[in-house]
Write a structure and sequence with these properties.
Nucleotidyltransferase, domain 5; acetate kinase activity; globular; 8-stranded mixed sheet; binds adenosine-5'-diphosphate; binds magnesium ion; binds acetylphosphate; 2 domains; alpha/beta
Length: 401
């Protein structure tokens, strides 16, 4: 079975083709800067020795154009890995918000699409692009079954005292206002890897996903106990363009005293805040560069970013009543030693002893970066949301076959 996984973001699409049941990756790719004249596709083929990388810069006005180009790359007589798009039997989609309707991997039907659409206001940066990815894939891979894996699903095991807000009860029962949590596919994937690495099925873990969006989750074995994102993917950690936690009184002040309308507040907190608001850059690589040039705003932003993570580590160590490992993952977590060092500094009372030499080693593999005597392990585990999505799609389809 060929499963093609699509992770459609607002200006990017990540994709990967897997052969099942071995979950062997055939090819993968990333399309960036969709909507601009200099969009970039990086397409990797794993079936050749050595791997082949194709990098193209081209005008891609929208997601449809992007996926059309991917279809061409997949079927190209020279570089293609399939003969025609009908060989894709399943397309697995990442959708960020599944609300309370979806706690599990789901086959896409018109009703499911309508529900995903209803959730647009709760994940305005994500669900609309995810939805577009589904619509385009339905047209591109006509024979395939379309399946969705929700970011919220893994967090559905949280206890009620963790997922409820202290609002009148009807706000939960009638309106569904509660903590949902996000990046669940990634937290689940790295937690499973950590449990296996530690050889401890009920390991107490704090998984820290630091990408463009950032979130942190307390996990015991394979069960999520609490997570930093809430009703939407805006609360908790400081992110590329999102503020993370702020006092809601700031919003009243913006609206009542400064004349902001709701859309302006939304745009401020989702798109103009976080590291972008603090430094002028949302991409951590740019911030690292100006930091090295002595930029003091970047230094302060790094401190805020790490301090917020540290506070959650303290909180989640209490939630778990102990700690076996903290796990760093996603673009920043896997690649930025400075962030990891600032987070782990002065956490020795919790048993976290980072080995700075090991922390500096760059690698694409799971690695342990603590001193051997450290009571708590510090792990860097590359996430692979696409692989986890393929696995879940396969499980669903073989169960229901
Ligand atoms: N070598 C690196 N050093 C520091 N940050 C990096 C590095 N590589 C990627 N990143 C950061 O990772 C972030 C993107 O992470 P990613 O997990 O790909 O996010 P998303 O899936 O949300 O797009 C960006 O802020 C980027 O700067
Ligand atoms: C939910 C979320 O924030 O996703 P991303 O990190 O891909 O923006
Ligand atoms: Mg991501």
């Amino acid at each position: 079975m060929n499963i093609f996984v699509v992770n459609a973001g607002s200006s990017s699409i990540k994709y990967q083709l897997f052969k099942m049941p071995s979950v062997q990756p055939i090819c993968s790719g990333l399309i960036e800067r969709i909507g601009l004249e200099d969009a970039v596709i990086t397409h990797r083929i794993f079936t050749t020795q050595p791997e082949k990388v194709i990098r193209l810069t081209l005008d891609l006005p929208d997601h449809a154009a992007g996926l059309q180009e991917v279809e061409r790359l997949l079927t190209d007589p020279e570089t293609g890995v399939i003969q025609n798009p009908d060989e894709i039997e399943v397309v697995g989609h990442r959708v960020v918000h599944g609300g309370e309707t979806f706690a599990a991997t789901t086959i896409i039907t018109p009703e499911v699409k309508a529900e995903i659409k209803k959730l647009f206001p709760l994940a305005p940066l994500h669900n609309p692009s995810n939805y577009l990815g589904i619509e385009v894939a339905e047209k591109t891979f006509r024979k395939a079954r379309q399946v969705v894996v929700f970011d919220t699903a893994f967090h559905q095991t949280m206890p009620e005292y963790a997922f409820r807000y202290a609002l009148p009860e009807s706000f939960y029962t009638d309106l569904g206002i509660r903590v949902y949590g996000f990046h669940g596919t990634s937290h689940k994937y790295v937690a499973e890897q950590a449990v296996e690495y530690l050889g401890k099925p009920d390991a107490k873990l704090i998984t820290i996903h630091l990408g463009n969006g950032c979130s942190i989750t307390a996990v015991k074995g394979n069960q999520a106990l609490d997570t930093s994102m809430g009703f939407g993917p805006l609360s908790g950690l400081i992110m590329g363009t999102r503020s993370g936690d702020i006092d809601p009184s700031v919003i009243f002040h913006l609206v009542n005293q400064l004349g902001y309308d709701p859309e302006q507040v939304n745009a401020l907190l989702n798109k103009r805040s976080g590291m972008l608001g603090l430094t002028g850059f949302s991409d951590m690589r740019d911030i690292t560069q100006v930091l090295q040039e002595g930029n003091t705003a970047a230094n302060l932003a790094y401190d805020l970013y790490a301090y917020r993570i540290k506070k959650y580590i303290g909180a989640y160590a209490a939630v778990l009543n102990g700690l076996d490992a903290v796990v760093f993952t996603a673009g920043v977590g896997e690649n930025d030693p400075d962030v990891r060092a600032r987070v782990c500094r002065n956490l020795d009372f919790l048993g976290i002893q980072l080995n700075e030499e090991k922390n500096q080693i760059r690698s694409k593999e799971l690695r342990e970066i603590n001193y051997p005597a450290s009571p708590v392990k510090v792990l860097v585990i590359p996430t692979n949301e696409e692989r986890e999505i393929a696995k879940q799609c396969f499980e669903l389809l073989t169960e229901t076959a």
